[in-house]
Amino acid sequence: MALPTLGALQALPVRDHLDLLAAPVAAALRDWAHIDEVAVVAIDPDLADTAALSAAYDLPMSTGANCVVVSGRRAGEERVAACVVRADTRADVNNLVKRTLDVRKCSFLPMERATEESGMEYGGITPAGLPRAWRVLVDPRVADIDVAVLGSGLRRSKLLVPGHLVAALPGAETVEGLALES
């Protein structure tokens, strides 16, 4: 299979460059059946934010797949989810995500907690390798991206993943209407 490429980003096979991934991401992808269809690109950590990366490499925002971590409570039980949406949309946290998690109120997980529990850096959190207790909700529009740019768990690199494979990540659930237009 051909390695996914996008614009001027220098795609490298993930299998040969696991050192460019956060440890939990490397562990999750190492034995994934689709590892040979995923590339990693080294980037300047100052370009880890989607808008900066898109501007620096002349990439459409629609190629980015952002992952935000949210939580809520019901009957004293905390429910955490990572929501993966195209970068030109935003997760419907206050309505659809709240209903999907069946919680009274849903809010973003504090940065320190998200990074500590995921083992990933802020600005690099990705749906691969997250704690098993966290749900991974994916907007179906992500599957329509030819090559999606995702975090790698580190700010110094990004993953290039065919969009349809994002929804095929272990534990991923496709949720219609997860994202709203920005």
TrEMBL record:
A single MF term (Gene Ontology): aminoacyl-tRNA ligase activity
Keyword entries, A-Z: Aminoacyl-tRNA synthetase, Ligase
Pfam family, one: tRNA_edit
Cited Gene3D superfamilies: YbaK/aminoacyl-tRNA synthetase-associated domain
Residue ranges occupied by any YbaK/aminoacyl-tRNA synthetase-associated domain in the UniProt entry: 45-161
Name of the protein this chain belongs to: YbaK / prolyl-tRNA synthetases associated domain protein
Species of provenance: Nocardioides dokdonensis FR1436
